[in-house]
Design a protein that fits this description.
With 109 residues, the chain is mainly β. Helix content is 0%, strand content 32%. It has no helices and eight strands. It has strands spanning 22-24, 28-31, 36-42, 56-58, 62-64, 87-92, 96-99, 104-108. It has a six-stranded antiparallel β-sheet, with no helix packed on it. It has a two-stranded antiparallel ribbon with strand order 2-7. β4 and β5 (62-64) form a beta hairpin.
Length: 109
């Protein structure tokens, strides 16, 4: 598996954190060493309109959103209201999660 890894990213957070909505160009395999983490997942194939919420583009990694996911402004992001199904993964120490390329995710630590 290690020779197939494109890159690794390590994040250390010592406070409650709510990340932005992300859509990576690559598959993601994330593991939690300690603590707990909630990951919201949206299958863009079922809700293609959610792509319009992703208003920050990064050629290398994909897209993200400047939308505050804890207080969504539905006037600015009306397409967010159309997402009627999402999945939540509650990770604890030692858990890993695979997120396929093209899926939209948002992390709460």
């Amino acid at each position: 598996l290690v020779p197939l890894l494109e890159e690794t990213r390590h994040t250390v957070i010592n406070r409650h954190f709510s990340g932005p909505l992300l859509k990576d160009n690559s598959d993601i395999f994330t593991c939690l060493v300690d603590g707990k983490k909630e990951v919201l997942l949206i299958d863009e194939r079922k809700f293609p309109e959610v792509d319009s919420v992703l208003d920050v583009e990064d050629q290398k990694y994909g897209k993200s959103s400047s939308m505050n996911s804890l207080r969504v402004d539905y006037t600015k992001y009306p397409e967010a209201a159309k997402v009627s199904l999402f999945h939540i993964a509650n990770l604890k120490s030692g858990d890993c999660l695979y997120i396929p390329s093209g899926w939209i995710s948002q992390t709460n630590v």
